[in-house]
Design brief:
2 copies of one chain form a homodimer. With about 220 residues, chain A is an all-alpha fold. The first copy, chain A, has a single domain, classed as Orthogonal Bundle (Tetracycline Repressor, domain 2), CATH 1.10.357.10. Chain A is about 65% helix and about 0% strand. Chain A is built from 10 helices and no strands. The longest helix of chain A has 27 residues. In chain A, about 35% of the residues are buried. The structure holds a DNA duplex (18 and 18 nucleotides).
Amino acid sequence: MSPDASTTAADRAYDELVTGQQDQPGRARGPYRKSSERRRQIIASAISLFATRGVDGSSLRTLGEAIGVSHSALRHYFASRDELLVEVYRAHEHTISDGGAQPPLGPVSTMIAGARRNRSIPGLVRLYATLTTDALQEQHPATRTYVRERFRSLRAQLEGQIREAQRQGTVAEEIDAADAAALVIAASDGLQIQWLLDPEEVDVGSALSLLARILPEQGA
Amino acid sequence: MSPDASTTAADRAYDELVTGQQDQPGRARGPYRKSSERRRQIIASAISLFATRGVDGSSLRTLGEAIGVSHSALRHYFASRDELLVEVYRAHEHTISDGGAQPPLGPVSTMIAGARRNRSIPGLVRLYATLTTDALQEQHPATRTYVRERFRSLRAQLEGQIREAQRQGTVAEEIDAADAAALVIAASDGLQIQWLLDPEEVDVGSALSLLARILPEQGA
DNA sequence: GTCTATACAGGGATAGAC
DNA sequence: GTCTATCCCTGTATAGAC
């Protein structure tokens, strides 16, 4: 799982995808979006139900029953179960990024900090991993769009940080910033999967810190 | 996806898991395993069906129909659909490792070579990614065991190569070989997922080669 | 716009024929 | 040991009530 970057590009792309309309100024207020209130209620109920029964054990019918509606009603607000899961993940993500200002760390430190936070919420890490591979299947075009845009915006963000470090002479110039950005994200995601499968054998932070040999940071 | 290592440890662990008995000498021959012949037939049919309809579009009922049996019959040989998918993946894997002797490359070159081969078989890469996240869910204990053992044996293999390189002075001694092994695998897996989602934007080989700055190889 | 009813195909589980 | 029949619970799709 990746850190709590403000994935604005992915947010916008996804909102447009879901609502079918761009968030243009001019109709920015008003009831242009269908019952985002009800959506929030459902998401909140889903989160609390996932917390007790787990994501796997929570079907749309179970969730609908808990709320008092049929499972079809849920699909009126979320085109698919995956879409609901994406929203649950985004809700958690925003909770994190709302929790205080982020110190301007380097790329590697940022990912290590994110991974450390994730150690206390393995369920969310699993959820993120599930969404990522769901995005690979052709059956989930919406999930695919969201995840791809999320990766793109994360990569762009890290790439910018790396280029800045290169300007300051901290990182070698020969390194391709785009490659390095993709590498750091991939390492973080992949290590957390190995950690979920084998917590005793894999130390995400320790392994990630090896990347500081490629991307040195002043703090390190 | 990881390279075509001879994952003997994972193989053994999985065989024991599936058959419920260890492959001890003394009853190594004989018909101790139920109809491995029929299993092979089913796997072969599954592969050819996946090749045409795709994995997603191939249900157990469809596959059973193609063979001429009910879907329940398939579950007599495979405890779950995932188990069948694991076998399909293993079949492909063995095909690769049978295809000629592997030159003794370093860890990074090995992963790059594997990733390059995978570019021509994105379906298999997707399958591998799916199995990996399925392994994270509690519902798939058999998949979990197989994937975990596979990671363990891959890590052990790379760790050995890295330690050897440290003995030869190619790799810095301060580097933890276990961390480095997990890192290389994670980077390879994670990059291939990003590549599947965004082939134009992500270059797996190029990004992976950055790791040679941590783990230098004579050939590089 | 909000929601129910209903049908369908999927994986999984069980009972039982042979 | 091999396999069919059948049932359950999913997510998904559609029709239609209000």
